[in-house]
Amino acid sequence: MNVRLSGIGMTSQRTRQRMVDRLRSQGIRDEVVLAAMGSIPRHIFVDEALSSRAYEDTALPIGFGQTISNPSTVARMTEILRNGQDMGKVLEIGTGCGYQSAVLSKLSREVYTVERISPLLAKARKHLRETHCNNVRARHADGGIGIAEAAPFDGIIMTAASTHIPQALLQQLAVGGRLVMPIGTGEQQRLHLIERTPQEYLETVLEAVKFVPLLAGVV
Ligand code: SAH
User: Fold this and answer.
1) FRET partner for 215 with CA separation of 20 to 30 A, picked from 7, 31, 67, 71?
2) SS3 125
């Protein structure tokens, strides 16, 4: 399927490069993030029927009522998280189809990702295997409490919207670490950046975004 599609250009390296050029024109400055996104075959992470739309700047359904974030949101959040530096250990909450995890895997030593929907996690694991993202550990759990035994994390990224910043995530952030997450509900969500300094947590409210809600418990 992918071979055939690349034959007609829908999922080719050239299509991916056009996505990267568009991200750059949309204001993404971190060339390391752009290179990572240029190297990952995003179409592998969506259902075959949607492959031809994988490089559009749009959110797409990934099953179970969830969506893969649009490329510009992935790029922007990753750029904020990375802040121009390679990362050590990173935690992602909301694995979904695994695309954001794959991007992080190119930019950090080790990625922990947590998903509450078991069959979705199984799909993500398959996608991550197929794209050789061997430094990603995917776990079936409620991510709202983080992963205490793997902490501290240099970066934490949440890809579902929460009404508040979970205390556990603040505790699991390394000094010098950064947490990026959407806060709010429905149409009223904004990205928040929390930086942990030796003395305190600094919070910056950034642009409006739209994510599915963070839900409690596992299914
Ligand atoms: N980063 C994903 C985006 C997935 S959408 C990607 O690249 O595809 C957000 C995901 O967060 C959904 O799969 C949803 O099931 C998951 N999620 C919501 N609440 C969660 C929780 N408490 N713990 C773990 N995952 C959660």
Assistant:
1) 71
2) helix
Give the pocket of ligand 1 (CB within 6 Å).
Answer: 62, 66-69, 93-94, 96-97, 99-100, 114-117, 120, 142-144, 159-160, 212, 214-215
pLDDT, position 6: 45
Mutation to probe ligand 1, out of 212, 218, 219 (largest number of atoms < 8 A from CB): 212
Catalytic residue positions, numbered: 69
Residue 3, pLDDT above cutoff 60: no
The C-alpha atoms of residue 209 and residue 69 are separated, in whole angstroms, by 10
Q: What's the pTM value of the predicted model, to 2 decimals?
A: 0.95
117 CA closest ligand 1 atom index: 15
Take residue 216 and report the two structure tokens written for it: 């409690």
Q: Is the pLDDT at 56 greater than 90, yes or no?
A: yes
- Please choose, from the candidates 100, 108, 106, 84, the residue with its C-alpha nearest in 3D space to the C-alpha of residue 31: 84
Domains of the chain: residue spans and CATH:
59-208 (3.40.50.150)
